[in-house]
């Protein structure tokens, strides 16, 4: 892989960024490679990682910068962004190793509660039926 191929692939992988952000990131790393005087793409890959790895780092940095800039400016964060963060937290909690046993325990408690309510209801109906049968109304 040549240096030009490396940066062409990096540019393609940075498509989610705006054109200005993408240009800024590419120019920064091109200057870095020029200053370091790397001779080929293998040297660039050894220093910066694969284009995919570098793109993921850049995208993560821009994501963090954009969320920090939004909250630092005091602007309202959109409800959709809040919902996305909430879902991310929920998914992180659910993916924890303890999530499955806790979910099983909660499910078991709900079933036990349902059985208790059902048993009490059945007992009440039986008592009422017994009272009505024992003392029939006199007409």
Question: Topology, pairings included?
Answer:
Blueprint: H1 3-13, H2 19-36, H3 41-48, H4 51-72, H5 79-94, H6 99-134
Helix pairs in contact: 1-3, 1-4
What does it look like?
The structure is a single chain. This protein is mostly helical and 139 residues long. The protein is 80% helix and 0% strand. It is built from 6 helices and no strands. It has helices at residues 3-13, 19-36, 41-48, 51-72, 79-94, 99-134. Helix 1 crosses helix 3 and helix 1 (3-13) packs across helix 4. The radius of gyration is 32 Å and the shape is rod-shaped. The model has no long low-confidence stretch (mean pLDDT 81).
Compact overview of the structure:
With 139 residues, this protein is mainly α. Helix content is 80%, strand content 0%.
Keywords:
139 residues; 6 helices; mainly alpha; 0% strand
Rg, Cα atoms, Å: 32 Å
Q: What is the helix tally? A: 6
What is the quaternary state of this protein?
Answer: single chain
Q: Roughly what fraction of the amino acids lie in strands?
A: under 5%
Number of strands: 0
Main pleated-sheet profile: none
**Helical amount:** over 70%
Gap between N and C termini: 102 Å
Low-confidence stretches: none
